[in-house]
Design brief:
By secondary structure, the chain is an alpha+beta fold. The chain is about 20% helix and about 30% strand.
Length: about 260
């Protein structure tokens, strides 16, 4: 392989040229494995394909587990048992899929995967789960079916911020209040947003929004990248916070792990 550009541009890296070449070879091999001839954009949009969705006739759930030999959907709806009717089908390229009837699962049900592979098995929270909650007694995390009858209706979906330099206020929802407890999306919306505006900020950077098992990590130990942390409230309450952020204050909000 040709000398990597990073080594050409920095002579101090020349003693490590073999390591960079090996790294590039592994990178290309992994790309070939996960992309299957598609683009990185397609792969990055996996959340539009993988995960739990409503279909025209019920539900569909998909996941990517190339080393699995079998996968069962288990949860509160089937007493956490591995039943054949809840077994996912291997559809190729590491992808697994299961279609369910409309009444098979319901809003609020807890679920996970029972995954088998050569040499072992275990319970797994689906990687593309959009709602994950922690049991207050066992402290175990599970995915949760989230399909409320009163979905939040965006009031300012077409928001466009003014062309201006961002003045960023970094905040943590749970630690945003004064009391020694975990605060909520609603409390941040009502109590904190006006104060940030008064101080002259035009951009909010929210910490710890993706779900994470260890609260003390400030959100850096992400376990579910597509699920907003349930510690602070529901997805609808987070949507309302962002919506009012746009409508009432003209903020541009974004999150980080």
């Amino acid at each position: 392989m040709e000398t990597p550009e990073i080594v050409k541009n920095d002579p101090y890296l020349q003693p490590f040229e073999a390591d960079f070449i090996r790294w590039e070879e592994k990178l290309k091999a992994k790309e070939a494995e996960i992309l299957d001839g598609k683009s990185l954009v397609d792969f990055a949009s996996g959340h539009l394909y993988f995960g739990l969705f409503r279909s025209k006739t019920g539900w569909i759930i998909r996941d990517w587990a190339p080393n699995a030999t079998s996968i069962y959907l288990i949860g509160s709806f089937n007493n956490w048992q591995e039943n054949s009717e809840f077994e996912l089908k291997n559809i190729g390229n590491g992808c697994w899929e299961l279609y369910l009837s409309e009444n098979a699962i319901s809003h609020g049900d807890l679920y996970a995967f029972a995954v088998y592979w050569n040499g072992g098995n275990g319970k797994r929270v689906p990687a593309w789960a959009r709602r994950v909650v922690q049991d207050s007694q066992t402290l175990i995390f599970n995915a949760q079916v989230w399909n409320p009858s009163d979905n939040y209706l965006w009031k300012n979906a077409g928001f466009k911020r003014e062309i201006e330099a961002p003045i960023i206020y970094e905040a943590h929802i749970g630690m945003g209040g004064e009391e020694p407890r975990v605060h909520t999306y609603n409390e941040f919306r009502v109590d904190i947003l006006p104060k940030i505006k008064t101080e002259g900020y035009n951009t909010i950077q929210l910490m710890a929004i993706p779900e994470h098992p260890y609260y003390g990590s400030f959100g850096y130990h992400v376990s579910s990248f597509f699920a907003a942390s349930s510690r602070f409230g529901t997805p609808e309450e987070l949507k309302q916070l962002i919506d009012e952020d746009f409508r009432n204050y003209g903020y541009c909000s974004f999150t980080r792990c």
